[in-house]
Structure prediction request, 609 residues.
Amino acid sequence: MCGIVGACAQRSVEELLLNGLQALEYRGYDSAGLTLLAHQTFKTFKETGKVARLAAVLGEGTFAGTTGIAHTRWATHGKPSAVNAHPHHSHDRVAIVHNGIIENYMPLRQRLQQAGYIFVSDTDSEVIAHLIHASLAHTDSLLEAVHTAVAELIGTYGLVAIDRHQADTMVAARSGSPMVIGHGIGENFIASDQMALAALSSQFTYLEEGDIALIQPKSIAIFDDALQPVVRKQVEIDAKVSVQDKAGFRHFMLKEIHEQPHALRQTLRERLDFSNLARAAFGDQAPALLAGVEHVQIVACGTSYHAGLVAQYWLEDMAKISCRVEIASEFRYRNSIVPSNCLFVTISQSGETADTLEALRLAKKIGYQHTLSICNVATSSIVRESSLNYMMHAGTEIGVASTKAFTVQLTGLLLLTGAIAQQHHCHEAWFEQYSQALKQLPQIIENVLNVEQSIADLAEDFSDKQHALFLGRGEQYPIAMEGALKLKEISYIHAEAYAAGELKHGPLALIDNNMPVIVVAPNNELLEKLKSNIQEVQARGGVMYVFADQEVHFDCIDSMKVIRIPHCEPWLAPLVYTIPLQLLSYYVALIKGTDIDQPRNLAKSVTVE
Ligand code: F6R
Prediction:
């Protein structure tokens, strides 16, 4: 969602704040702002649109602020505008930046208005600035003022405040929205994501829920929610990933699509010990735990949810264990039954998705005893709060549309399937076949990427289309869902996915030559059924694009283009057929000229519900 960067130093911090914002921009990018502090003076700049527009108005950097806070926004309360952009101020004394949602902002706002505070924005965040200002009437300490203010907040926050009267001081607080301190030499930093500080530090301290931190150039003090000093672990992370580096690709999304063979090698590295897959892939505790598991409950959002849906087919088919998959925002707001000996699995690229995190917390509360996260960020809240973790090692994903994270999640779920199967004494012959195929997976994905040019060529057909339909059967149905999600999110073409057998129960009414129908057709036991569904579309004048196994015969007709995909094991097909669908959405969006890496209205890492 939104991104926060703050710095207090003995040098001008303007440029490093801007660089930090740029690194975070993929998280939210509808407006950005920055407040610098020097000589008891605030200088604030805010712009709608991307950080580059903010950088342009900052000009020559003549105001050498040594303390500063900056924010890139993804609007929740109040439209994207300069006025609603952060930092928010109170009486030219307090400036704050905030991630999260303050649920009780309305009564707070009314109370503050009655006390004479004037609100200039429509945001929920502005109340925080005024609350801190009101508290400063009773104390000179910014730390105490922030502590008093946050005690009144209901909702989620990661925030940083500065006081015009207190040079070289920032106070940060966390509840439900991550905050990380970057340690420097004679300067210190704070951000909502370590990546914003990667160029500045390799030593980090993550705030825990309820923590408040007093940050000055030469000191950092952390307190709990009772304002008692606490010690939090300092970790070394040397990840100087240049987020500007597209490695010659036109977009991060295309780079990340091409990184998939490497990402799969990374995720499989040191995990393919087939003598004890559970231990090699999921850690020392896993063999005993997975041996006792009788049921799997998966919870996730968006693309990660689609990975879970594929795993349901795999787990029930190959590991012979029952599995249920649910969207996190649904799971957390209904009363569900906790099956005995159930493994609760969360899937999240970022590890900070608010609904998934809250679903995990709820699961632990209602009696799930074993939790496993499949996650790409080692320091994330979901990883810290799960008992078992599968670290994806997919590398940083910058494109808002998830690509390599999805195939790596699928790989982790394939390993989970094999590990449970092995712990439950599956057939040796099957396990041997499974092991051989898994070893070949990265190479197979590399081969599939060769279809790129043929997909780029057919993307033109979609450029004037308003709608598209994706069809699949079995474990390819979630892949059709993922294909539809990718197309709508970056090309803004309305796309829906159906299990192909459902066509005749309604969607067939939509078929005409203006709505392309995309079919994923690997060579599996459902192929003949799928061919009948293709006939149904054909008979009604539909135009089809069929991604089909190169070994399968299709009669060529004018209204159907067949794109040949290298042959693979049926249960590897979800990974394999994802690749052409990712490429299709990319090339359609390229023709349409959309903002591929930062599509409208979206943000990476959805830390608000
Ligand atoms: C779509 C996409 C989103 C995310 C979803 C969950 O391309 O990226 O649907 O998959 O917001 O995010 P994570 O996996 O970080 O929990």
Notes: Residues 33 and 86 are 5 Å apart (CA to CA). The chain has 19 helices and 25 strands. The mean pLDDT is 93. The chain has three domains: 3-236, 252-426, 451-592.
